[in-house]
Design brief:
Blueprint lengths: L1 H10 L4 H10 L11 H15 L8 H9 L3 H13 L9 H8 L5 H18 L3 H11 L3 H9 L10 H11 L5 H15 L3 H10 L4 H7 L5
């Protein structure tokens, strides 16, 4: 099985010394094998070459198995696979990504899922925005809120500014660091494309200080 090949590659590269600081960096939310990103990417290239999985249909079962495994590198492997399979995604995969956002949730996974696969799906199938992503923005799940704010992060001139601002206004009263930070990040990124619009939005809305500081980085 493909999963066995990947586990074999990763287990052979387990490093307890690396694992300790990696776990601390993620606030001890997850155990780690201790495989740093450059080495993990090498192992993933080897896995893709040996398994041939990239030549097959998108494997949702493969992702779900990886998400259930204990060490965080297996979730990173799932994200690596998703990124390499972006062109195979359609709107029917959105429930899977919602599940990944709300399971073993932390910024390291959400910040890959939101602007990359989810952003791509929303660009290709914009009907999912009112059908699904709007509910994330207006709901009470921290990480879905963050994903809704960030899914347009790479849209540049294709950003729906009013939608972005609506989602920010909906969440601007949040005391959550990760929401305030997401607001600032989204505004900062869009300010590279439309600084006047972002400046006007910041000046006309009472936003958290952290969001203003982050969002204004390229404006003044």
């Amino acid at each position: 099985m493909k999963i066995d090949l990947l586990v074999h590659l990763f287990e052979a590269n387990r490093n307890k010394e690396n694992a300790i600081p990696m776990q601390k960096y993620m606030k001890n939310h997850f155990p780690f094998l201790g495989i740093k990103t450059p080495r993990r990417r090498e192992l993933m290239r080897e896995f893709f070459q040996k398994s041939g999985i990239l030549k097959e249909n998108f494997q949702t079962d493969f992702i779900e198995v990886l998400w259930e495994l204990e060490e965080r590198e297996y979730q990173y492997a799932a994200l690596d696979y998703i990124e390499r399979s972006i062109k195979k995604l359609d709107k029917h995969h959105l429930p899977l990504f919602e599940k990944l956002i709300t399971t073993k949730s932390w910024w390291d996974s959400v910040d890959v899922l939101a602007p990359k696969p989810i952003g791509k799906i929303a660009a290709n199938f914009p009907e999912v925005i009112p059908q699904t992503i709007k509910g994330w923005a207006y709901g009470d799940h921290l990480w879905l809120n963050r994903a809704a704010i960030l899914f347009q992060l790479k849209y540049k001139e294709k950003t729906d500014a009013q939608l972005l601002y609506d989602y920010i206004v909906q969440n601007k009263e949040s005391k959550e660091f990760f929401i305030q930070k997401a607001i600032g990040w989204a505004l900062r990124e869009y300010s590279k494309t439309n600084p006047d619009s972002v400046r006007a939005f910041i000046e006309s809305n009472e936003l958290p200080k952290l969001s203003v500081r982050e969002g204004s980085k390229y404006l003044y």
